[in-house]
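Notebook, p. 212. Picked up where the previous page left off. The plan for this session was modest: take the two constructs that came back from the sequencing core last week, fold each one, and keep the raw output in the notebook itself so nobody has to go hunting through shared drives later. Recording the first one now, exactly as returned: residue sequence, then the structure token string.
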Amino acid sequence: MKKKSTTFYKICCSATLLLCSLVLFSCQPKAQEPEGPVPPLKEMPAVKDVAMYQVNPRVFAPEKSLLAVADRIDSIKALGVNVMWVMPIYPIGIEKGKNSPYCIRDYKAIAPEFGTIDDFKHLARVCHEHGMGIILDWVANHTAWDHPWVKEHPDWYTHDENADTIIHPRPWDWYDVADLNYDNKEMRKAMIDAMKYWIADVGIDGFRCDVADGVPADFWKEAIDTLRQAAGKRQILMLAEGKRPDNFTAGFDMNYGWDFKDQLMKVFRENAPVSSLFDADKAEYDSLPEGKVKLRFTTNHDHSTEQTPPVEFNTLRGSMAAYVASVFLHGGALIYGSQEVAYPEPINFFKYVPVDWTAHPEIYKEYKDLISIYNETPVIRYGDIKPYPDNNILAFERSNDSERVLVMVNLRDSTITVPTPQPWLNKEAIELRTKFAAGLRDSVELAPYAYFIFQ
């Protein structure tokens, strides 16, 4: 009896231990399955409807900055933007490096400084949930010196003809990066494969392509055709940092309005006639195929490294007048993250720069109002342009069969009175930002850097 009892006790204990083990095992956290692509955006904006917000992660947080951007999604979306462009988030080269995000040593990974792939997918997901597309900055012209390709495939890079050594991109002084050789077909395949990963496996909505004019157009055509095929029914947006006409025959939807910005600076710095902006606009758009768009801006990460808009355009009011002139005349709209709070100092994107997102709420509201007008008044994006040339005031009408808008912007730091354009003489109009009703009589007086948007 004693032996039987001991045996029974051992059996019970073994069974109990086995049951406990099973319970404990079942309570352990399961290894997460790799997440698939981010659920697609319901609808990408048409190219002419793009209002873009550029994210430099290094102004959002010193670490885990992708999550910090996601935490600000409501504030960003409230500006009225519909596409987020995120600067490079890939691992940054160390060899010969200077901590530039445009010095990339792995095209399919994320730098720990910015977070993880799950952090990025979270950001993409919240963008889509807020009705915003998300595009990544892509650097196809060069890589870091410690990118694995340098040792594994030195023939994928441009070599000095005499020394037979890999060179940095010329004629620039970008010594921290190695120039890629687009005569090499295998390198092209690897580059397209890396781009396709972000479209097909991650689920982003396109790319802003750095130094696009430094890469052959036939590569871009092959890459963009492949990416659109990989996206399936999803629309993707392709923005070229360039101004070559063949950006568009290669398949890009937008490229940069560099020349317009240069002429705008001549108006502010050299007292060039304001009417010259119409010539700059026409020159840029004359070479564009139907449906393509120039991205217009007053600043971006490159320009804000030197001067932010309140300094570049003389005063805070000058920066707002410049923005209306840039965006409302003829172009896709861009806001560089930090300009909506009128950040006053240069932003070196090679390091973390803290931005006070509570500063200048009145400027945030002004950008919000302007983008709202841009979004809600289709004639501003699609209407015919009729210029009213003047040396000091940018005045133009945008119209279609049923709607007309008159934009008047004083680009001088003094009060100026100009005759009312004849078609608007003695008409009643609404100023769209302030909502006041105005009777347009013989002339219109504009305070320094003031603007009116009449409908």
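Okay, moving on. Second construct, recorded in the same format:
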Amino acid sequence: MTTRKVLYRLVLTVACCAAAGLVCPVSAQKARDAFPPPGSSTGSCRDGRSWTTSEPQHAQMLVALNAARAEARRAPLTRHSILDRMALAHAADMACRNYLGHRNSAGDRLPERLARVNDGSIAAWQRLAEVLGTSVAPERQVERWLGSRSHRRAVLQPQHELAGIGLVRIVGSKYDQYWAVEFLGAQP
């Protein structure tokens, strides 16, 4: 479905709710689930469940990723706040909606998801990749990624310079925790 059609349906839904004198939770709920505020450590799903995240585990994930990259003689990754926000939003979306996939629940791919959160600090990019996982320990999750050809390529891609890390812990979903890591290589 195109962005234009999605926006049309959203506007139509809000207009119908307003005409009926109802409070329309669709747009507010979607924004809350999809884009946690920067620095969030907790959030809510539209079904009332709450999720948490852990900055210490985000830092441990970066250490584990950079250890794997150092072993492969790759430059270390640097975290970027926009990519962190994108990763956390996707992890929260997956946890709240009980799925694991590279498109968000609205069907957006990586470039569209980046465009929605980018404040202009990422002007241009050459490579964009993502890895997802459900392991409890960051080190174990990196081992799993390195054991998969496509995930290994994303983790060790020499052109990747920046990373965004998102972890969401939740009760009542298929997995107890969801990892999303975004990788970006800037334009030369």
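Notes on construct two before I forget. The chain is about 45% helix and 20% strand.
Flagging for discussion at group meeting.
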